[in-house]
Amino acid sequence: DRAGGVLCVFLLNKFFFSLSVNSFVLFFSKGFIIFDFIFILLLLFLIPNRVSAQNETDFGGMLTAEYQCGFANLYEVWVKEDLRFDHDFSQYTRSKTALGFDYKFKKYRLLHGLKMGIAVEYINKYTEKHIYRNRYRFSAHFTYKYDYRNWEFAFRTRYQMMMHDETRGYYNYKMQHVWRNRLSVEYRGKNSRWSYGLSGELIAETKGKDLFLESILLVGSVDYRLTRRQYLSVFVRDYRDIYITDDQIRTVFFGLGWKFKH
Fold this sequence. Notes:
Blueprint: H1 2-22, H2 30-45, H3 49-52, E1 56-71, E2 75-86, E3 91-104, E4 114-126, E5 132-148, E6 151-165, E7 173-188, E8 194-207, E9 210-225, E10 230-241, E11 249-261
Parallel strand pairs: 1-11
Antiparallel strand pairs: 1-2, 2-3, 3-4, 4-5, 5-6, 6-7, 7-8, 8-9, 9-10, 10-11
Helix pairs in contact: 1-2
């Protein structure tokens, strides 16, 4: 059992690095995109429970609201707010306000489907010590999407830098650097208001000169188009930590989101 868990973590780390290094070189190979998507999701969902399961599972809730505004079919500015609750939906745990800017490479034929973006986020988190902590996150990402009939495959790589404001603790400020790689798929029926999505994301943190795979995020969602510009989403988010401690609690979030595209 222990050997199987170690092997699984090794394969995930190996794939994480190979995907990140080779993805941009092979972005325009259709077979690579579909094969890679299937491969990584199989790895993520087939991880043995003994590697990812915590001693106890908590259930939480999320509420999200997002506004997007596009310009010239190339630029997007968006703002997003979300609230999180845990302890079986009874306790506030986090709020996040985010502002971002994206650019689509539609002018370049070879880069069609590629998008880059930056974002800044303010996070207020309620900790186990009953203290509200402020965090500031800065991120940059590249996203590539490929459409095949009613399916949309996407790969996103994102680097984020988090500044922890701990002036009320032992540190004045503490920096955290994280690298995230996500593969997702979405299905939308012809002339249908409904769409269904599934994604798996590898989350790694830099510690000194080393990079460690810390956790895996799995998300399943169902979206409904209310009007031409408004969308409603119901989703489930499941974080699976690779390295766990005896007192660690796994939280599964059930969420409801609203989006407006201008």
